Amino acid sequence: MGGNLLDRIKMQAPKFSKGQRAIGLFICENCEKAAYMTAAKLGQTVGVSESTVVRFANEIGFEGYPQMQRELQSMLKSKLNSVQRIELGTERLGDGDILSNVMSLDIEMIRRTMEETSRTEFNSAIDAICKAKKVFIIGTRSASVLASFLGYYLSLALADVIVVDPSDESAMFGQMVRIDKNDVVIGISFPRYSRRVVAAMRFACESGAKIIALTDSDTSPLKPYAHHLLLAKSEMASVVDSLAAPMSLINSLIVAIAMRRKREMESTLVKLEKIWDANNVYEKGGE
């Protein structure tokens, strides 16, 4: 099943039935709305039955409507600018209980990530990280928070962890110039995908490093360079992307690696506790 979803619709349009043509036209002209409509709602909007919408999805190569909808959403997320995200998010969330709506979305993203994450791929990524001589982590914008969090905890268990600073492209490649086949690079990017992270993944792959991509879908531009692909669901909540599922997946990685490197982590933490106590880093409770 190749090609952009909208391109496939346009190519197959001549052989569609009248109802299918109406569905295809609506999706092509109103993809922002169609991406978040149920099959029943889409059918009602264009004047066809729900079953016609489902058959339309089958006709263009999907197993069902949900699969087509997910691809449309994925395509849409990478194209919307910030203003369009606010408009679409406001329309989706409405004027109801924002707290419940946003948290429910986070819960759903974590549930889907847990169900769909390949345990084999997850364990292979852990193996690669634990065997690496150096681990490089890179993420920009909101993903830079994820990169810093992952880097902090991995550095407690592993000897050489580098969180790459992507703010300056020249400096970024300077940090990565000595990457080789013994190293692992973890790239983190979600829609709108960062060109700088993609460039770093390409460079690291060409240098022979093992690449772990933490992203949202099989259509992510990080996938072609990844030896290990970890997918976490990230949905739009107005201008904010839900990073609850990516953070939960990162937590799982950290815990798994900490269990593999228990002695190293305990040794590091014992030293750090002494340093923290000597420098009064933390408030002492119960006194």
Question: N-to-C terminal Cα separation, in Å?
Answer: 65 Å
Number of helices, where a helix is a run of at least 4 consecutive DSSP H or I residues: 14
Q: Tell me what portion of residues adopts beta-strand conformation.
A: 5-15%
- Main-sheet strand order equals 2-1-3-4-5
- Please tally the β strands and state the result: 7
Kindly report the average pLDDT value.
85
Q: What are the secondary-structure elements, in order, as H or E?
A: HHHHHHHHHEHEHEHEEEEHH
Classification by helices and strands:
alpha/beta
**Which quaternary structure do these chains form?**
single chain
3D shape: elongated
**Low-pLDDT runs:** none
Helicity level, as a percent range? 55-70%
Biggest sheet features = 5 strands, parallel
Radius of gyration: 22 Å
Task: List its traits.
alpha/beta; five-stranded parallel β-sheet; two-stranded antiparallel ribbon; 287 residues; single chain
Tell me what the structure shows.
The protein is of the alpha/beta class. The protein is built from 14 helices and seven strands. It has helices at 5-12, 18-29, 31-34, 39-46, 50-59, 65-77, 82-93, 98-116, 119-131, 142-157, 169-176, 195-206, 244-260, 262-278, and strands spanning 135-139, 161-163, 184-188, 210-215, 228-231, 236-237, 240-241. A five-stranded parallel β-sheet has the order 2-1-3-4-5, sandwiched between helices. The protein has a two-stranded antiparallel sheet with strand order 6-7. Helix 10 (142-157) links the parallel strand 1 (135-139) and strand 2. Helix 4 packs across helix 5 (50-59) and helix 9 packs across helix 13 (244-260). The longest helix has 19 residues, at 98-116. The model has no long low-confidence stretch (mean pLDDT 85).
